[in-house]
Amino acid sequence: MGCNKSLPVQVQARVTSQSEVYRRRPVQKKTSLITKEMGSLSNHFEILSAMGSTSTGTLLYARDLRSGTLRTIREVCKTITSDYSSLFLEVTILSELDHPNILKVYQTIETNRSYYIVMESADGGNIQDRILKSGNEYLVSKFMHDVFSAINYMHIKGIIHCDLHIGNLLLSNQTSDAIPKITGFSSSQKSSDIQEIDLALLNYQYISPDMLDGTVNEKTDIWSLGIILYKLLVGKLPFVSKNKKEILEAIYKGDLDFEDPNFVSLSHNAKDFLQKLLVRECFSRLSAKDALNHVWLQQSIKDVGLTYQIVQKLRRFKMKTSVVRSVLSFLNFKLDFKEHEIIGLFKKMDVNHDGNIGKAEMIDSFKSIGIDCANEMDSIMNNLDMDQSGSLDFTELKIVLINWDKEIKKKLLGKVFEANDGAIDYEAFKHQLHDILPSEWTEFAKRLRVENNRISLPRLKEYLKTNIVF
């Protein structure tokens, strides 16, 4: 049941106190929150309801006035906290992540009294709410495969979550196609620059033994995922006691309840997987990458076939100008296009689970349906890889596979870019798009015959469709 270790008194105090923290590095540096918008929240969103409250303010459910898309907005009141370092770090970290199972942050708004963090809507409740009974191994495996995929991606990017628990695993919607979204990044760390963490702010039942030892690494997240998985499968946490002090002692010793009847009744593969996640010594735990290859997680992978039509679209697709690339990125950012099938395809092609599709993975994916495009892959990747990173992230694949011929309409463009009398303000349009050279704007204005600082909606629609090869 575990080794004979005792939880040091000073560790217990750190987990209980609201002011004490452990340190591996000096106090974290102040970072800048790049505010995208200033002014009243009501200028941008219609507040539909209050979803609840957090330690820093209210959680709001809102509709974007421009696009009509639904968003979750987290308020951070300036009167409640004056130390925004963890908030700034959280937003910075999330702005660097692009994975279908990580909750996206779209916008920040600063007012005189608050910061508002605008996130994608995830109104399906947490994972536990969807599991109708303990022991539903297939459904739990399906959800947890997605979660481990996102954690592996984060670890490759050098990000450690540090506060994974069931409440931070939300479902995207209330349908049967819902996917998990990881949230709650306020304690996240960059592995290259570990900063202080206030253990009292974490959910103590999911804290790893290494955190109680005063260290943080990628395996910290693996332990927390093991606790989550145990609760989902067994229906309770893996501790005999319900007393906080005794639970912390059990965590520190690695003394978990593997004799509960509901645990014993699990499949052999489920028990094996859990026991390889919940190892006290962090270096002996599975990594996220190794976990994804475990037979228990593999059982729920749905075989999403790459079709000839999709391959042909990937081969043909091209955005001829920087303005087109920027407009499509902005439309994808502002609107909720259907992505369920694209997510499945992305994970099918991302063979090594690193959250990107590399050139070799593209070649192998094409070969899987009998198409050899090795000689033209450099050209294909150049067209699809918008940031020229050498691989495709999820957003880049999604932009390629959206049916733009159907989606690009005057009504949609007018809504997103706030048209008035059939035209868009040219300067406002330019302000919302990025990475476009002055010479390209000059050519764009000439092509669309911009007059009196106005862009005609019909001309913009025609320009976009003419400069996208579908």
From TrEMBL:
Classification via InterPro entries: CDPK_Ser/Thr_kinases (IPR050205), EF-hand-dom_pair (IPR011992), EF_Hand_1_Ca_BS (IPR018247), EF_hand_dom (IPR002048), Kinase-like_dom_sf (IPR011009), Prot_kinase_dom (IPR000719)
Boundaries of every Protein kinase domain copy: 45-297
EF-hand domain ranges (all copies): 337-372, 374-407
Signal peptide segment: none
Names of required cofactors: Mg(2+)
GO MF: ATP binding; calcium ion binding; protein serine/threonine kinase activity
Keyword annotations from UniProtKB, A to Z: ATP-binding, Calcium, Kinase, Nucleotide-binding, Serine/threonine-protein kinase, Transferase
Annotated family: Belongs to the protein kinase superfamily. Ser/Thr protein kinase family. CDPK subfamily.
Protein name: Protein kinase domain-containing protein
Species: Stentor coeruleus
